[in-house]
Design brief:
The complex is a heterodimer of chains A (104) and B (269). Chain A is 47% helix and 0% strand. Chain A has helices at 12-39, 48-60, 67-74. Chain A contains three helices and no strands. In chain A, helix 2 runs antiparallel to helix 3 (67-74). Classes of the chains: A mainly alpha (104), B alpha/beta (269). The complex binds zinc ion. Residues 7, 9, 32, 34, 106, 137, 217 of chain B line the site of zinc ion.
């Protein structure tokens, strides 16, 4: 992926000053969402979207570049097969459901 | 301050949205044909929609000094039945004569099916035969990356110059591919499922301001018809120059759209 170091006109300090509170609040939303899942009655297995979110959080915290693109790729359908018709298909869910029997 | 919102579905918005957009500096919009939130039961339903886009909306916009242009097609969500889709596509050539129709759009894929691809290819051929610009819709969420690649392959198989095609709804994982292949890229500022003004400004910082624009894609869903001026403000807060901000929200749309001789603006308005 493209080297994009030093392409923002603001300093690190300015970025933190401008955006910290907003993203602090968003982080707390994610934490509360995970707490809410823990407080719910357990289902047989966690939903694939829950697992995908936890995997994405590891990317967010890994310190590497292009976290956004890497999270989007993680949440993308990487297959190449095309069904004939969309008849009976559900809308997009935001993460890829592993095929039945596939290794996780 | 002036800007163009090059992708917004005004048929789904109220007249006071036009008023607020005009007050925020909007001088022109372009409106692609899209899914109405329900499947239309006949080709006649599309005929009426195309009349709304070409006759009614330009008049409503002009009350606020906004120029209204449009794009026609059958959207990918209703294109999964090829026989029905062909009935709709057959209506389009007649409307291409209208003096506010800029091209074919927003065509693309929704669930990345073979049926959708067949109709996409037929509409690419229609654009080629009639020398029309193309505005492309890419699928949302997990289907976007695969769909964007399939669409670009279908477009590259035609003889249309990629500089006459804009691929919309790009995100961080698709924007580089789109630009590298010579297409224009559109970023959609949509509160829930697409980009925020902050992320759009990030993409400009990372990938530059050439062949890229921003739009609100405001429609009947939770969307914001003032998303483009909000992105301008976000870029201003970061210290970007007015020249750069104008480039991505006014000059770039004007450059791309002016490839159609029908796109004219009165910049003195
Ligand atoms: Zn749209």
């Amino acid at each position: 992926m493209k080297d994009v170091k030093q392409t923002c006109p603001m300093t690190r300090e300015q970025i933190v000053g401008q955006y910290f509170l907003e993203h602090r609040a968003r982080l707390l939303d994610i934490a509360a969402f995970l707490d809410r899942l823990d407080r719910a009655a357990a289902s047989a297995a966690p939903d694939f979207r829950e697992l995908a979110l936890l995997e994405a959080l590891r990317i967010v915290a890994d310190g590497g570049p292009h976290r956004t693109a890497r999270v989007l790729n993680l949440l993308s359908d990487l297959t190449t097969e095309m069904p004939q018709s969309a008849h009976g298909m559900k809308g997009a869910l935001g993460a890829v459901k592993p095929a039945a029997g596939a290794a996780t | 301050m002036k800007y163009i919102d090059p992708h917004i579905h005004m048929v789904s918005r109220t007249t006071d949205d036009y008023q607020r957009m005009a007050q925020s500096g909007c001088i022109a919009v372009t409106e692609p044909a899209f899914w109405a939130g329900f499947d239309r039961s006949s080709a006649q339903g599309f005929h009426d929609y195309f009349r709304q886009l070409t006759e009614y909306e330009p008049r409503r916009a002009s009350l606020f000094g906004i120029r209204h242009f449009t794009w026609l097609c059958i959207n990918p969500k209703e294109a999964d039945d090829p026989a029905f889709a062909r009935e709709v596509v057959a209506l389009i050539p007649e409307f291409l004569k209208c003096d506010t129709v800029l091209g074919i759009g927003e065509i693309g894929l929704n669930k990345n099916t073979k049926n959708e691809l067949i109709i996409l290819e037929e509409q690419i051929r229609l654009a080629e035969e009639h020398h029309q610009l193309i505005l492309v819709h890419t699928p949302h969420l997990e289907d976007k990356r695969k769909g964007t690649r399939l669409i670009m392959d279908a477009l590259s198989a035609s003889r249309i110059d990629p500089g006459r095609i804009l691929i919309d709804h790009v995100e961080e994982h698709t924007v580089a591919d789109v630009l590298d292949r010579g297409f224009w890229a559109g970023m959609t500022l949509y509160p829930d499922t697409k980009m925020t003004p902050q992320r759009a400004a990030d993409v400009i910082e990372m990938y530059g301001s050439e062949r890229i624009w921003m739009n609100s894609a405001g429609d009947w869903g939770c969307s914001d018809p003032l998303a483009v001026p909000k992105a301008r403000l976000e870029m201003r807060r970061r210290g970007h120059s007015l020249q750069l901000i104008d480039r991505v929200t006014l000059d770039n749309p004007r450059t791309f759209l002016s490839q159609s001789p029908k796109f004219r603006l009165d910049m003195e308005q």
